[in-house]
Design a protein that fits this description.
By secondary structure, the protein is an alpha/beta fold. It contains 15 helices and 20 strands.
Length: 453
């Protein structure tokens, strides 16, 4: 804290025989890493709360004009190079390092407060019991959520604007979070706010499947999705669902994009592609489309809470994860055929990525028609039928929530649907089942809803 411009400070330094500190380099105890260790005990957690480090850092940062404080190892080489070049650090560097130091201390203290809010009283005394993630199957109680939500997300990029040109926007992401936010843009102009939102929808849907898959997204809703043995075939099937809406959309891929698939995508105007990688041949094919953004996403995101802001607060929830068909229940006299069941399983996965009220008609691993975001479920069925370009005879239908009345089923049967999967739970369930039996449809209940708002 000694200041060279204050005579009293200098007098005290001489009397005490102290030398001024010009550079402070501190690495804090690894509290955050310790808190993430499986089964870590409270004693070990408390032991890793650094006391002296933050105190020295705060003091040095306060006296930034006289003391340079380095808290980020990524600054080491730049600081060393500046010392080597001029023998001292510039005032601008002092100020930048001080700001970084204060940010680091604030994040460190917030992490401590957040972790200690998860200390609970047990029969044997206090214990560190962080909220489980993912939670136990079927869990949705408040105990599954953190008591305190602490965010420390540095700004990764300033965006050109938000959803509309008059709105400001930026991307914030934890340095080690992985996922889409850590993607590297290999080609094209910078991504916009809407690009990021749509790419996230495309990437997450494509990651639902283990087979080669492609998702085409327009305004966060699937315009088409398909799986196939070859990626190029998955693209052709996804595009066939709604080629009009696919124009100007974004694409999510769960495999390294190859030349054959790139050549197919090259025929259509798309805004962006997110993929785990691109072969050199695919890059060469797509290089001619200067406006096309290619995002390489090498690692999946760590499981985390889903957040959404509301006026005056933030909502948090666990992700919508589903065990799939093994937990389903046949409720009609007729069971789905193997082909129908394949369409039901595929359509159910896609339906979880469609805005409610969601209706997905599918065959095998291909979407045939999508009805999204309507205020009534029967209207979503009608819109899916209206937009359909592919034959719907024998199609499977997935509904993200129950049918409140039989009218949606009757409308689907007129379009050619022969099998349905839905959560069930309506007071009209029996009426809906009876209509299915009368029309010869098979229906499965999942017991779990798939709303997406």
């Amino acid at each position: 804290l000694a200041r060279p411009d204050l005579p009293e400070h200098q007098r005290q330094m001489r009397e005490l025989g102290l030398q001024p500190i010009e550079l402070l380099v501190v690495n804090l105890y690894p509290f955050v890493a310790t808190a993430k260790k499986p089964g870590v005990g409270l004693d070990e957690l408390i032991e890793n709360i650094d006391i002296g480090g933050p105190t020295m850092v705060r003091a040095a940062a306060k006296n930034f004009a006289a003391v340079a404080v380095v808290t980020d190892p990524s600054d080491y080489s730049e600081v060393a190079a500046e010392y080597e070049k001029s023998g001292q650090l510039s005032p601008a560097t002092h100020w930048r390092l001080a700001r970084t130091a204060f940010e680091r201390i604030a994040a460190y203290d917030a992490a401590i407060a957040s972790a200690l809010s998860e200390v609970r009283e047990t029969a044997s005394g206090l214990a560190y019991q962080p909220a489980a993630f993912p939670p136990a199957a079927g869990g949705s109680a408040a105990s599954d959520l953190p008591v305190r939500l602490t965010l420390d997300l540095p700004c990764r990029a300033s965006l050109r604007y938000g959803e509309n040109p008059h709105q400001s926007a930026a991307l914030y992401a934890a340095p080690d979070a992985g996922g889409l936010a850590a993607g590297v843009c290999l080609q094209g102009k910078e991504l916009s706010y809407n690009n990021w939102v749509d790419l996230d929808a495309a990437w997450q849907l494509a990651q639902e499947f283990s087979a080669p898959a492609i998702a085409i997204i327009k305004h966060t809703n699937p315009a088409g999705c398909a799986t196939a043995p070859e990626l190029a075939e998955a693209w052709r099937q996804a595009l066939a669902c709604d080629p009009v809406s696919a124009f100007g959309g974004v694409v999510g891929v769960n495999r390294v994009l190859d030349e054959a698939t790139a050549a197919e995508i090259h025929k259509l105007f798309v805004e962006c592609i997110a993929a785990p990688g691109y072969t050199p041949e695919a890059r060469a094919v797509l290089a001619g489309k200067k406006q096309l953004r290619l995002l390489q996403v090498e690692s999946p995101a760590r499981a985390g809470w889903q957040l959404r802001s509301i006026s005056g607060g933030v909502l948090a929830q666990t992700p919508d994860q589903d065990d799939g068909a093994p937990a389903w229940r046949q409720v009609t006299r007729r069971a789905p055929t193997a082909q129908e069941m394949a369409g039901l399983e595929f359509g159910w996965r896609v339906a979880g990525h469609v805005k409610s009220n969601a209706i997905v008609m599918a065959r095998g691993g291909q979407t045939l028609a999508v009805g999204a975001g309507q205020m009534s479920r029967v209207d979503s069925v009608k819109i899916a039928g209206m937009k359909a370009r592919l034959p719907l005879a024998g199609a499977s239908l997935a509904s993200d929530a129950f049918f409140p009345f039989p009218d949606g089923i009757e409308e689907a049967a007129k379009l050619g649907v022969t099998a349905v999967v839905q959560p069930g739970g309506s007071v009209k369930d029996q009426d809906v089942i009876e209509v299915c039996d009368r029309l010869g449809l098979a229906m499965m209940f999942t017991g779990r809803r798939h709303f997406r708002h």
